[in-house]
Design brief:
With 276 residues, this protein is mainly alpha-helical. The protein has ten helices and no strands.
Length: 276
């Protein structure tokens, strides 16, 4: 049955997100999401200064680092559950919509929520696999997936399109950081001026740095497909290594690493101030 009023849509969206337990789990998921980014930033910093010990600076490396801590398996399952709750919350917003009277803006937000749900679900699965002892390198997984898709009819076009989408996501993150549009997602009314300023700076730096890294990932994927060099189709770790190889790469990678750490802190702060 079609929805005829914005009020009905808003009511359904509010009901979908009105689970106190889901909200608390989702807020816990934001902390887990932030911790993963803090670890990626730390690993990237180690790569920049030659102390990484071969650990990849990507999601698999971050989760593997977490697994090595005391009670690491328990921590990984906590991360997996929290991220799954985040995925369910974003799915509910993607299905039932956002309370916005502008239809185009509402649809755009629904698509964004759907994409975030996929990302959170994938991270939850990765955490669960590492907890079960069957995780694999993100870069290796991406290279294998790319090779498989390239074998499909029209596979090269699909991979190039995927690379361009990733580049677009990176550019969107940079724009979001510069314009501070992420402030629409958090409630700053209860913050002191100092805290508000700090949160805004963390968000800006974090979104820009992550956007740059994602743009490089998309660029590598597209370049690998166009030049028939499948080994170049690496994930985040490969992108960070590419940044390191540039002039002044150590300092560029350090800036990106600190940006990931800033994004991680921002995500953790969102667990307190995020509108849900």
């Amino acid at each position: 049955m079609a929805t005829t009023t914005d009020g009905t849509t808003e009511s359904r969206a509010e009901q979908a997100g009105d689970s106190t337990s889901l909200e608390w789990l989702a807020r816990g998921g934001l902390i887990a999401y932030g911790v993963v980014h803090l670890l990626v930033g730390w690993l990237a910093l180690q790569i920049a200064w030659g102390t990484s010990g071969g650990t990849s600076a990507d999601t698999s490396g971050a989760l593997g680092t977490l697994a090595q801590q005391p009670f690491g398996t328990v921590l990984l399952w906590v991360v997996a559950v929290g991220l799954l709750a985040l995925a369910l919350w974003q799915t509910s917003e993607a299905v039932w919509g956002h309370p916005d009277r502008d239809r185009r803006k509402r649809v755009r937000k629904q698509i964004t929520s759907g994409a975030k749900a996929v990302v959170y679900a994938a991270l939850a699965v990765s955490a669960a696999l590492v907890a079960l002892g069957s995780g694999s390198s993100s870069s290796q997984s991406q290279e294998q997936a790319t090779t498989g898709v390239l074998a499909w009819p029209g596979g090269r076009v699909l991979v190039v399109a995927a690379g361009l989408v990733v580049i677009g996501v990176g550019i969107a993150g940079i724009v979001k950081g510069i314009r501070k549009s992420f402030t629409e997602e958090i409630d700053t009314s209860s913050m002191s001026p100092a805290v508000r300023s700090g949160v805004l700076r963390l968000g800006q730096v974090g979104y820009v740095a992550k956007g740059v890294a994602m743009g490089v990932v998309g660029g590598l994927l597209t370049y690998a497909t166009v030049t028939f060099d499948r080994q170049t189709a690496q994930g985040l770790d490969g992108a960070l290594q590419t940044i390191l190889a540039q002039p002044f790469g150590r300092y560029l990678l350090t800036a990106v690493a600190l940006g990931f750490a800033a994004f991680g802190l921002f995500a953790i702060l969102q667990s307190r101030y995020r509108r849900m």
